[in-house]
Protein 1
Amino acid sequence: MKILLIGSGGREHALAWSISGSALTESLVMAPGSDAMAALGRCAEVAADDLDGLLALAEAERPDLVVVGPEAPLVAGLVDRLEAAGIPAFGPSAAAAQLEGSKAFAREACARFGIHQPGFTVCTDIGSARAAIAATGGACVIKADGLAAGKGVVVADTVAEAEGAATEMLDGRFGDAGATLLVEERITGPEASLFALVDGADVLFMGSAQDHKRVFDGDKGPNTGGMGAVSPSPRLTDALQQQVMDEIVRPLAHGMADEGTPYRGILYVGLMLTEDGPQVIEFNCRLGDPEAQVILPRLRSDLVAAMLATIEGTLGHVSLRWDDRSAVTVVMAAEGYPGAYEKGTVISGTKAAEASDDVMLFHAGTKIDETGTVTAHGGRVLAVTGLGNDAGKARATAYAAVDNIDWPGGFCRRDIAAG
Ligand code: AMP
Ligand code: GLY
């Protein structure tokens, strides 16, 4: 089969690695891909958010399957447009991708389907936001409704802090994404992420992970896209995993299908494991980054076959095999990230770092020139994944590989999967 993969980050490098390893894949085209991904297929210079360009590329290439990595083209309706052109695509429709594109849509859907979640109020003016904040006593979470690149969430302790965040959002700090906001009850507990394939009706567990969102050790500093992850999640026991599939994923899939917006693709469920059981923090309509870099190396079954079954509605006949080992990925980022950072700094030692079979190096933001010199061209630049018999051994493998990399312009957290 010919596969077209959309995206260029570390998650897409991991997807390209899995797709190119599938017995079903004859050729792989990536838009836009990256220098590192070019080792696995052919790159086409079309940006992941250029829907017209991607459609034209797909019509010219006529792939047997399009795999969409990032959320923006999904929320903007790329899969709908590809399907209308008769090109099979893996990922939800724009209507179903609202689960990530609108936090109010997701909360209201869960409320209709009886899914366990924190209390919430949807507000479009400061008066109703103030009333909702006052009702929580100040311990609440203020969220911009739309996509805000992970930055549209403020966990508040006091009424003043919550009102400040609500005012800023309604004043347009996140553009249209913040024109509607949610005031949520603040819940507590460890976090975990569960992934599931959903084919409209059937659902299939697709791994668990735990990411580390803060930039510095000890969960200090601002939130980032993710500085590292471990899979399986050490906190999501088999029983909890089953409970999340039965009480969250399945009712959601059935409810969406019943309402005429069936979800097809991979569903990312962000959870808080509270004393009253797992509750939904958020949904994403795609694999996580860097969660893909720990989930996919553990998948023993054919990813492309599972994606095809998801599109065809035959997931009920599929079971997935997993490597029993754990995977840990450590993100190496440019000094300054998530703020301003320099581009073009030289990274050496990547070959030595990935010499072991138990190590995979996924490039998130590098360039590689004709001489093989690797330079940094992004905030999150490399995800270094190690496998091991338990999380501790996987962590040791990942950090040993990190220590082979010489990059004076970069840094990483030293406590990924440590606790
Ligand atoms: P989100 O972008 O919705 O995943 O939120 C980002 C982070 O904010 C989450 O990973 C949680 O740590 C925190 N958070 C979000 N919603 C809540 C909530 N209702 N109660 C407590 N913490 C929350
Ligand atoms: N690592 C968080 C995300 O992909 O949304």
Note: The pocket of glycine (ligand 2) is lined by residues 211, 225-226, 284, 288-289, 291 (CB under 6 Å).
Protein 2
Amino acid sequence: MRVVHTLAELRHALAGATGTAFVPTMGNLHEGHLSLVRLARERGGPVVASIFVNRLQFAPHEDFDTYPRTLERDCELLRATGCNLVFAPSEAELYPEPQSFTVQPPGELADILEGHFRPGFFTGVCTVVTKLFNCVQPRVAVFGKKDYQQLMVIRRMTRQLALPIEIVAGETSRAEDGLALSSRNGYLDAAQRAEAVALARELQGVAAELRRGRRDWSALEAAAMDALADRGWKVDYVAIRRQADLGAPADGEALVVLGAARIGSTRLIDNVEVGVAT
Ligand code: PAF
């Protein structure tokens, strides 16, 4: 496995490559990322992972400065998982001048849920992902369902901009107790880590009620938010949405229950699908 830091090295390393499968990351890798790399490997072409903590998708009060940078360990994990090439550019390499051209996703998809609580987040994500796509020029790109809305936004962006890239979704990896794996879990102390699974459990609880046939969406959402708040969480949202476009739920549609809440100062997100979109 090669590790390159510049666009020139990346282009040289990929010259003549076809069928590249790409896994973009911000590093501090865990089993969730590695499962995406394994999915990429199934495609048979060269597998490229990027490691870049993207300032554009962090608000000024968020954890850009403290986001764990663990390049050496990340590269060991990627090597052991069969990744062929790591692109780990510096900020100056990827953003050599202020990034005044940005990719603006539509409000109906990007200003709701995560976008409502993290204004500008999806513009930052779409801009860097477009740029990374242009750098790597993959045939396939793999994104985790853990960041469900991000996956939807990237899918729609890729489709509407006619990018010749297949977007593949990887299932969420979970710890034994059910907590969705996330780089931010590392911020939790022991007590918070034990409590953190409550988010997944509340979302599972809502999903179970939906499977039983309940359709009082707002009451289900409110009950889950109250239950988390009673346990000391600061809840941003628990929302039942259509899988297809994250629009308002309707009977007979494949649904997804999404949640975001803060335990201490750590904000966690998770989701559970109910039914399969056709
Ligand atoms: O999901 C992430 O880790 C990031 O949002 C991504 C897609 C690598 C863009 O910075």
Note: Strands lie at 2-4, 21-25, 47-51, 85-87, 140-144, 166-170, 234-242, 255-263, 266-274.
Protein 3
Amino acid sequence: MPRILTVLGARPQFIKAAPVSRAFAEAGIDEAIVHTGQHFDEGMSEIFFEELEIPKPSFNLGIHGGGHGLMTGAMLQALEPLMESERPDWVLVYGDTNSTLAGALSASKLHIPVAHVEAGLRSFNRRMPEEQNRILTDHLADVLFTPTDTATARLRKEGIPEERIHLVGDVMYDAALYYGRLADERSNILSRYSLASGDYVLATVHRAENTDDPERLRSIMEGLDEVARQDKTVVMPLHPRTRAACERYGIQPRYIQLIGPVGYLDMVALERHAAVIATDSGGVQKEAYFHGVPCVTLRDETEWAELVEMGWNRLLSPRFELRDALLAQMWITGSQGAPYGDGSTVGQIACHVPDDSISPKSYPLWCARQLLNTVLEEARR
Ligand code: UDP
């Protein structure tokens, strides 16, 4: 059995890793988790490990803050000796953060095979740190798990050898299905914040292109504030980066219901009951679709173009009229489809109602096992 070292660090990675790590534990696979510390506080990290029952990290590097170079460099410096002493058979990384790149680069330099979950995504905006991390990680990885046909085609176009690419679908859909049910049972966030189902706007903003640009951030917050004043309650779990940026630029919305970052079950409940979602998050765009809620994406481009083509998502550059777009999108239902799977893998399972023979409880585990099998097959080659 191979020994796997998983490198994680940021909120969306905890969510993607949860079902996979559970499968490793069930199958008796030796997985050690390294938490880089990129997201570190209770609301952005701890709560996900508890709620999603992710095994406690074996190593916590405690690295956060500073610029991209400082953070990534510190991670490389800490990861290399750790990987040298642990000598895993595989290093597993998720998504597109600095932790993803640091994990992939450290392993690659030590000739340890790297598997990348959520490979092949592109926004074609090279200024985004996430885009830089994705491109570099994909070209370092030995096994690339893609969520969509588009991502697979993109990797082929970039010259990644065919045998490295595995179309498995989107692991976040597994999480959405499983935790969607749990959220219905366990979350009481609607009553906590006096929200009426189907009668509020959910908003999240955290991308550097919005938070580091005072004009864009002001335009988003003013647009949302306008909706909150005139039309509907707007609830916004505020990312720490966005809170700091608002303070820095003196942006003080008066009508938006600002709350701190919430745990995943509460977030899923907020998504499922929203009239419309406004976001610049990659994960939240997809979750809106998974839960059948229309979405406006506050960016100039998206990695999840399928959802725009299907009508579920509308791109809106924050320079334009946010209120009109939100009110119009509220009533839109996109076309049906299954863009996140092909019929024989995790993503395929994820994009269809699960087979009756698979109980909801064992479903994410089963999905994750498919993923694990693909890694093992590759290791045997
Ligand atoms: N999320 C959460 N609580 C929040 C905001 C987001 O649990 O207060 C979840 C959300 O449901 C999604 C993930 O975090 O699964 C998305 O993370 P984020 O927006 O930070 O990153 P991105 O997806 O853009 O990489």
Note: The longest strand covers residues 3-8.
